[in-house]
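User
Here is a favour to ask of a fellow structure person. I am asking you to supply a protein in sequence and structure-token form. Please set it down just below, with no commentary around it:

Assistant
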Amino acid sequence: MPNLDLSGPRLKLARAKHHIRDLESLFDAFISNNPHRIETEVDDQGIKVIGRFDRPIPVETSAIIGDAIHNIRASLDHLVAAAVRANGQQVSRYNSFPMYEKKSDFEGGVAGKLAGCSDAFVGFVKSREPYGGGKGAKIYAISKMDNLDKHITLLPTVAVTSLKKITITNPDGSPKLTIGELHLSGDGHVNAIQAVGQGLKFEAGTKPVFSVRFRDADMNNTVEVVPYLRSMCDDAADIIENAKS
């Protein structure tokens, strides 16, 4: 049996990495060249620190994110096509890498998605458990994000993640608290202290550290865009490079 031709899957994954590098450059330029100010809000969770930029994040970032996710997804579909060909069979429009929300759906659909592949390849894919709740749940997230991109705009937001040399003052200008470094949650809430009160002001001695974030595949948590996409690439690469024909 011929070895798997991984040129197609690798090419798609390389394209995804190209998009991710473009995103990283775009985000760095946006933060570096865009004047901003720091504001605070008090809510039932405490203090939230917000970075206000003069210009919104470029709308084309959504398209680049979608392209990166789609190419990661396509790299695994190309892997299945390569496995079919390596087994001496013809690729059909039904062939694709199986990713399902539920284990029962995966078990019911895997045979059709991998029709024409060798038993060794089918066993390899099954061992990866690419479904919600399986050890390959992060692989299923690739499919879910790809589907989300078809229906909603995956436009990220910029959040403050840390501040240094912080002075918190009362409304009358008197100092309330001084902190060397302050780390914030993904949505900008203060984690280290509970300094609550009306009219409190934050003054940072240095520029804040920002991260560019969006909702994850379950739309429950915010995650950093570039590390999240790179993690998806790593998971897909691990499957591609270890696949058995």
